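Hi support team,

I submitted a single chain yesterday and got back a structure, but I'm not sure I'm reading the C-alpha cell output correctly. Could someone confirm the output below corresponds to the sequence I sent? I've pasted both exactly as they appear in my results page.

Thanks,
R.
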Amino acid sequence: MDLTQGTAEEKNRRAKKMMLWFGIVSLIMGFAGWTSAYIVSSKREDWVSDLELPSAFFISTAMIILSSIAYYMAKNFVAKGNQKMGTILLLVTLALGVTFISLQFVGFSQMLENGYYFTGPTSNIKMSYVFLIAAVHIAHVVAGLISLLVVLVRQIGSKYTPDNMLGMELGATFWHFLDFIWVYLILFMYFVK
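Hi R., thanks for writing in. Yes, this is the structure output for that exact sequence:
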C-alpha cells in the first residue's frame, strides 16, 4: 500500500494513527528501560526481595481492566449508532480511570504505612523503583484521562458517528495501551523479586 496515495482525509487518518503509534512505541521503550534497570538492580546486595506490593495496586488493576472493557463497549455502541450507550460507557470509563488513580495513591499510602519510602534513610532501592514506575504510569493515565475527556465532550456534542470515529479510535487505542502497560508492570513487579 502506498501511503502517499488517497484523499486528504485518508492521509490525515493515517498520519494521526502513525503519530499515536510512534508515541506508544516511545513509551514502551521508556517503561522497558525502567523495568530493565529494576532487573539489573535486583542483583544488588541491598535488594529486598520479600516486599509485598500494596493490595490497592491489585484492586486498581481490576479497575483499569474494567475501564478498558467499558471503553471498548462504548466504541462499539457508537459504531452501531447507539450514541446514548456510548456516552454512558465513556462516563463509566472516566469514573473507573479516576478510581484507578485514587487506588494508586491508596497503594502509595499503604507502602508508607509499612515504612517503605521513595527516598531517605528508611527507603530501599526496590520500593523506590515501585514508586517511580507507578508514578510515571499515573502521569500517563492522567494524559489518558485528558484524552478521554476530549472524546467524551466530542461524543456529547454528537461529533462521532459510525462513519467518523477517528478521535474515539485513537483515544481508545491509547487507553487500551495504558491498561496493557499497567497489567505488564504489576505482573512484572509481582514476579520479579
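A quick pointer for reading it: The CA atoms of residues 70 and 89 lie 6 Å apart. Let us know if anything else looks off.

Best,
Support desk
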